[in-house]
Amino acid sequence: MYGRFQQDVAERLDEIERSGLTKHERGIAGPQGALIRADGAELLNFCANNYLGLADDPRIVAAARDALDTWGYGLASVRFICGTQDQHRELERRLAGFLGTDDSILFSSCFDANGGVFETLFGPQDAIVSDELNHASIIDGIRLSKAARFRYRNRDMADLEARLVEARDGGARHVVIVTDGVFSMDGYLAPLAEICDLADRFEALVLVDDSHAVGFMGERGRGTPELCGVADRVDILTGTFGKALGGASGGYVAAHAEIVDLLRQRARPYLFSNTLAPSIVAGTLVALDLVEGSADLRARLTENAALFRRLMTDAGFDLLPGEHPIVPVMFGDAVLAARMADAMGERGVYVTAFSFPVVPRGKARIRVQLSAAHTPEQVRACVDAFVASREAVGPA
Description:
Blueprint (H helix, E strand, L loop, with lengths): L1 H17 L16 E4 L2 E5 L12 H14 L7 H4 L3 H14 L3 E5 L2 H12 L5 E5 L4 H8 L4 E5 L4 H13 L5 E6 L1 E2 L4 E2 L2 H10 L3 E5 L14 H4 L8 E5 L10 E5 L1 H10 L1 H4 L6 H16 L2 H19 L11 E7 L1 H13 L2 E2 L2 E2 L9 E6 L6 H18 L3
Parallel strand pairs: 2-13, 4-5, 4-6, 6-9, 9-10
Antiparallel strand pairs: 1-2, 3-11, 7-8, 10-11, 12-15, 14-15
Helix pairs in contact: 2-12, 4-12, 5-6, 5-10, 13-15, 14-15
């Protein structure tokens, strides 16, 4: 039987390869950082979500190492069956305090957090109104719910209002507006103030996945709700510890107490998946200390992003506008973007090209991600590599 199935899978893989869409995983030797070793060479890394440069911070590494002795390697089951450790509850309390919510609940990833929240909270009588460019985890999570589904054009408030009218006219009991805080392919920010205004008008809840903002956006690093002045108007926050908050793994939902309590009782990814490893919990607690205790890393990240944008604009590259450390460098043609990424690697800079279906046809790009760990000299070296690669590659 496997023979026929094997042939089908092989043909699908061949089609992916012919389309130029095969995703190659590059092996790196050593920790994640502004500099990595890959294929025996040292490369400047400009494509990680390591926004604050904490992925190899020695204080976090030391806390994780100590936790192995204190708390062990893993819990070997889910929390309601075999118990939970004090530090897991401490992290949930600390995170809720940091984000300004009543409580929070840990998941093994933000993908799991988004996979558990919609089915648990919203049923056939309800409506979910979602931005068209929301992350795949939100899309998959919404599919698990029996609620009515509405999709609005990216950051288009007139279209959102029209979908809210449809939801209310359809008799929805509860309505929730769902958006990424930052749309990761473009670096665009969701207009949360306008979204919350519409939510008030239509008596809707607001859910924000703030994975690409928590830890470094806003005055105290509390993410896009703080940046937009609506931290007290967002009902549900989801996010990850795998980016700015240490870069390891794990996710969360932070919300009103009743919502978190219901998720503990009914969210399937929480009830049927092992909880976070003790070492990750300990490291994340230190990451929160570092984020709360100093604005230096956030300021350095902002300066690096501004420097990169200015130098690339001066060099004549086409950038999507924005203020986020995700900076898409637009090439349009997929082949050209791939050739540029290869040429950058030859010049000691690790970046990745994105093309259809990850981004729309004709919108191929190299998504550069700045980090607080980058020095100004490294940012300038990245720009110099772009200029030299453009000269070497030439037109598509």
